[in-house]
Inverse folding.
């Protein structure tokens, strides 16, 4: 009985969600041989996004609005690859580049209250898990649409 419970919890772990997302983006990256063909092609994944939003409604508040910002498959392709790189290599490099470009000085933030750290952690963990699920779906949808556009039906 313990193994069944452990495998269920592992399936829903953040690490596995990140691996599923990275795998989906790697598959997308290997499938899309000519990214420029994605320009001006609408993604049309509103139904898929609504299904994920309904599934993760407790953790996500406006996920569908987030995906409506992308105009075409190419912008989604670039976004997904960028997020994958941030997950694999860290966001510190990106933040350092932005700070250098802006020439902004360090801005001090007020420290978080220690009494609700566990609650805050779980809130952000649930949100991150929901976002990773949506991004994984988006990468899979983009891959499928690309195959349809080039006439490959695998």
């Amino acid at each position: 009985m313990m193994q069944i419970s452990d495998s269920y919890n592992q399936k829903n772990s953040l690490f596995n969600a990140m691996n599923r997302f990275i795998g989906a983006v790697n598959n997308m990256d290997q499938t899309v041989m000519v990214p420029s063909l994605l320009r001006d092609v609408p993604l049309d994944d509103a139904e898929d996004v609504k299904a994920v939003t309904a599934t993760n409604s407790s953790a996500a508040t406006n996920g569908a609005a987030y995906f409506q910002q992308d105009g075409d498959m190419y912008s989604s392709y670039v976004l997904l690859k960028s997020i994958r790189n941030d997950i694999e290599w860290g966001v510190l490099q990106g933040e350092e580049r932005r700070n250098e470009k802006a020439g902004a000085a360090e801005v001090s933030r007020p420290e978080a209250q220690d009494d609700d750290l566990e609650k805050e952690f779980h809130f952000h963990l649930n949100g991150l898990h929901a976002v990773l699920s949506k991004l994984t779906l988006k990468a899979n949808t983009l891959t499928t649409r690309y195959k349809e556009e080039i006439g490959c039906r695998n």
In short: The helical segments are 2-11, 14-31, 46-55, 63-67, 73-89, 92-102, 117-150. The chain has a mean pLDDT of 74.
